[in-house]
């Protein structure tokens, strides 16, 4: 037989001494198939334990860290109990302003996460630009062509670029390495360089080497200009070509080689000087 207890004011059920201080020693047990609360339920204790197999919540959103009143200073999230293994957690790291997931030695009683081992997150292949990308998607984009890679700093990672890909090296006017150990930047090109206004060495008194492949030659299709008069360089086993003030040869274009005239500097002779010399010598 159904019964109704109606009061005109607050109704209190006490179980043991000390209720008013929150230190009661007895238990109130509701033994029924269902317990329904048509009104709101407020739990003022320090811990709420729900011992059930299935928890169903009708609310669209769940709020954690409810009483936090200071902006951006407290970590908050959800723990996943893994028994004797470390707990798994997904939480908002207030210090870093980012979400983190992984494992931790902390339990849910902690106020800040100071021990975290980041974990893996499995997501579907992205179908639009604001989706998280899988490693497989990135690998396919790099290997499949049509993918632009921008280098903005020094890095030890090797990036292989296939046909159809673009490598954009952004920054200043030079390609250089600044690491302490000997670094090498190698650029292999399958096509001609265009719109290059100057090429210079990066080290003081360093040589600039232009080398043709195999039996090929270095070809100058237009004018080769010497912008300034050089001092006579030291002779070597290779021929050095340079410009100075014109002498008896009338060209100002000099060469030096230890295998020619014992390394004595020589000047190329102009056609006019050669003709005059031929006439003079008969």
Q: Summarize model confidence as the mean pLDDT.
A: 83
Total beta-strand segments:
9
| pLDDT < 50 runs, ≥5 residues | none
Terminal CA distance reads 147 Å
Q: What structural class do helix, strand and pairing data support?
A: mainly beta
Bin the strand percentage.
5-15%
Q: What structural keywords apply?
A:
282 residues, mainly beta, four-stranded antiparallel beta sheet, three-stranded antiparallel beta sheet, 2 helices, 9 strands
Structure description:
- This protein is mostly beta strands.
- The chain has a domain at 224-282.
- It is 7% helix and 14% strand.
- It has helices spanning 135-144, 271-280; strands at 76-80, 87-93, 98-104, 117-118, 148-151, 166-169, 240-243, 253-256, 266-267.
- It has a four-stranded antiparallel beta sheet with strand order 1-2-3-4, with no helix packed on it. A three-stranded antiparallel beta sheet has the order 7-8-9, with no helix packed on it. Strands 5-6 form a two-stranded parallel sheet.
- The radius of gyration is 41 Å and the shape is rod-shaped.
């Amino acid at each position: 037989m159904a019964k109704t207890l109606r009061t005109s004011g607050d109704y209190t059920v006490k179980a043991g001494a000390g209720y008013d201080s929150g230190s009661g020693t007895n238990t109130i047990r509701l033994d029924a198939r269902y317990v329904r609360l048509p009104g709101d339920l407020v739990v003022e204790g320090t811990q709420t334990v729900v011992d059930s197999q299935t928890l169903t919540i009708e609310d669209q959103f769940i709020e954690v860290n409810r009483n936090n009143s200071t902006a951006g200073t407290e970590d908050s999230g959800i723990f996943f109990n893994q028994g004797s293994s470390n707990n798994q957690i997904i939480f908002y790291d207030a210090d870093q302003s980012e979400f983190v997931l992984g494992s931790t030695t902390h339990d849910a009683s902690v106020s800040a996460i100071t021990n975290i081992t980041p974990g893996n997150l499995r997501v579907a292949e992205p179908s639009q630009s604001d989706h998280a990308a899988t490693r497989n998607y990135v690998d396919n984009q790099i290997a499949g062509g049509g993918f632009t890679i921008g280098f903005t700093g020094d890095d030890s990672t090797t990036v292989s670029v296939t046909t159809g890909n673009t490598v954009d090296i952004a920054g200043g006017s030079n390609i250089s390495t600044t690491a302490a150990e000997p670094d090498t930047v190698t650029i292999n090109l399958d096509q001609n360089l265009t719109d290059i206004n100057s090429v210079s060495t990066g080290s003081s008194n360093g040589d600039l080497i232009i080398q043709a492949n195999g039996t090929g030659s270095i070809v100058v299709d237009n004018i080769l200009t010497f912008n300034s008069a050089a001092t006579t360089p030291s002779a070597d086993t290779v021929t050095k070509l340079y410009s100075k003030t014109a002498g008896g040869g009338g060209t100002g274009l000099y060469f030096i080689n230890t295998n020619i005239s014992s390394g004595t500097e020589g000047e190329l002779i102009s056609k006019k000087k050669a003709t005059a010399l031929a006439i003079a010598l008969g």
